[in-house]
Amino acid sequence: MIEVTKNLFVGDQLAYESKVRFSEGWCVVHACKEPYHRQALGYTGRGAPKSHPEYLVATRDNRLILNMVDVDNPAYIPKEIIDAALLFIDQSLSAGKQVLVHCNQGMSRSAGITLLFLAKQGLIAQSSFVEAEQQFKALYPPCDMAMGIRGFLVKNWDSYIQAK
Q1: What share of the chain in percent tops pLDDT 70?
Q2: I need a labelling partner for 86 at 20 to 30 A (CA). Which of 50, 64, 102, 154 fits?
Q3: In 8-162, where do the E strands start and end?
Q4: Does pTM top 0.90 for this prediction?
């Protein structure tokens, strides 16, 4: 778990379970379907029912729980999930909370969301995704995004950065 800017941390599932889960004052983005989205909605099949109102995003107290898998195809990264995560991070930090963004291994989904948040805030390069990614990797060396989240960021970079 690494603090990439004041009160914003990126990490893996173990960091959440061992350092944050039972601590006060934290807000958490679970950027992983397993096990948190499954637990929140209580589904037992392969995936959540698409008709469920929390199919993409569930909120439980101070936690945002995303139905997000680490895929190679950016088409499987819904913009609604990324938008919800960015808003949650912003609101939580503005409220003076510490925020952990994590996925299972802490390398791909959580890194991509946090990189985009930092760029939107002007805390790392905005001119190009490649430059921002290089700066982020200096802040968070475990970053190793899968093609899905990376492709989503490349494709949508300009629209997110221009929509401050």
Answers
A1: 99
A2: 50
A3: 8-11, 26-30, 57-60, 63-66, 98-102
A4: yes
Nearest partner of 58 among 76, 77, 79, 31, judged by Cα: 31
The two tokens of residue 74 are: 């950016």
CATH at residue 35: 3.90.190.10
By residue range, what is the domain housing residue 80? 2-61+72-162
Using DSSP, state whether 9 is helix, strand or coil.
Answer: strand
Specify the number of domains making up the chain. Answer: 1
**Predicted pLDDT of residue 45:** 87
d(CA 102, CA 28): 8
pLDDT digits over 58-98, tens only?
999 999 999 999 999 999 999 999 999 999 999 999 999 99
- Report the amino acid identity of residue 11: G
Task: Evaluate whether residue 67 is within a structural domain.
Answer: no
